[in-house]
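Cont'd.
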Amino acid sequence: MSDRPGGESVAVTRTGTGADPGTDLQIIESLARGELRVAARLISRIESGDPAILPLLAALHARGGKTPLIGITGPPGAGKSTLVDQLIFRYRQQGKRVAVLAVDPSSPFSGGAILGDRIRMNRHSADEDVFIRSMAARGRLGGLAIAAGDALLVLDAMGWDVILIETVGVGQSEIDILRHAHTVVIVQTPAGGDAVQALKAGVLEVGDIFVVNKADAAGADRTVSQLREALSFRSDAQEPESWHAPVLKTQAVEGLGIDELVLSIAAQAEFWRSHPQQRATRRRLQTRLLLIDQIAETLHQRQQAGDRQQRFEQLLDEVLARRCDLHTAASRLLDHAMK
Amino acid sequence: MPQQKIRCLLAMLGTDVHNKGIRTLAQLLRDRGVEVIYLGEHNTAGGVINALIAEDADVVGLSYSTATYLHYTRDLLDKMRTAGVGDVPLMLGGLIHADDEPALREMGVRGIFGPGSTMDQIVEFLQTATGKTLPGGAAAGA
Ligand SMILES: Nc1nc2c(ncn2[C@@H]2O[C@H](COP(=O)(O)OP(=O)(O)O)[C@@H](O)[C@H]2O)c(=O)[nH]1
Ligand SMILES: [Mg+2]
């Protein structure tokens, strides 16, 4: 952002949603120049569901896919933000410019949120080569992963050397967010073995690197061996040409074990480079799931529009009265939505 | 379904460490539907401004429990203007002396919520200052 006093254009775009931030091409150029305010505004428009940005997102998508995306997930309080802080520190030492998207899916009844991940990364607050953006769920379920993906397109267009995505690994929507990541780091803590149990619901399958953080707490070694055992049952565990997910121990607050984590992330990226077939398979699977999500989301958005909402409710009444079954109702809605 | 939310940055500057008030405020604002970006204590003006830009916050709230707030506030507002974000409304809370309010307003502080302020007052300020409405608070008492 530099100490450039300018910001004229930003002052304009800041003042209201109606203000014209420039043509799509100008925005793309501003992003490529690393203009943080343009990026920040754009992410806000993504968050508020502004349909006018869809052509721009399409253009960003066409040009995108260049920046390594590292997803970091795990239960609340596991130390994800502290680990992200340590990763930022290491990448900055390597001269890399880092962006972080910190997604907090907790969605209280009020629709508000307290986004506090930045606090742990506060030592980078004056560093212009670190960009941290927090994102709340805003009541979206499947839509959260889509909005996060769109925000990642914006970051991707800015030429960061690496993008870190922090998300709480509790529900499906957070696991969905990991579909954007090239490398998935799953963070656990020595929690008496229950943690490994809780992992089974799909997360074990999508992790590329496992971290047992808070290794200073009792039971860390046991958690590590439990994780290793659980991983040995993974569907790809026996294939010779597949990536074997390492299990690492860290103490994020003290910065211990971070070098190994950085090395593992690099090794995983190297694995993708040397195994283009596997990488293509993985990308295809992730993108397939993203597209399925997007279909549901697009349908949902169309249903929100005026008379369609009413039509949905009417069909719902029909189903409740058993005049129409679920299959038929869905077909009718889909046929209608296609028009 | 996706909505315009009020995004509010909350922070403490300098050496001020009495964060109980600001933590409580963060929770109360969340319960009113605000997205609070919580920076905690020990922030620098530069750090707050970088966060404000990256988070595209609609409003900034600072809490003070020490007497140095005039200095810190002036410094932050100067730096906000230099960075081109001087138009983002700033509100203060905590132990603000009534005698200092005119000077703070003069500097450009938009909202001052000392001891005895109510949540309704703060919520109304947020809505007016940002031009956005909160789910439960259609400009109470306007
Ligand atoms: N004892 C111990 N505490 C840690 C460690 N890493 C993080 N913490 C603490 O765990 C708490 C939650 O950390 P945070 O990074 O916010 O977790 P997140 O919710 O997963 O992002 C904080 O108080 C951290 O200081 C660690 O390795 N050991
Ligand atoms: Mg966190």
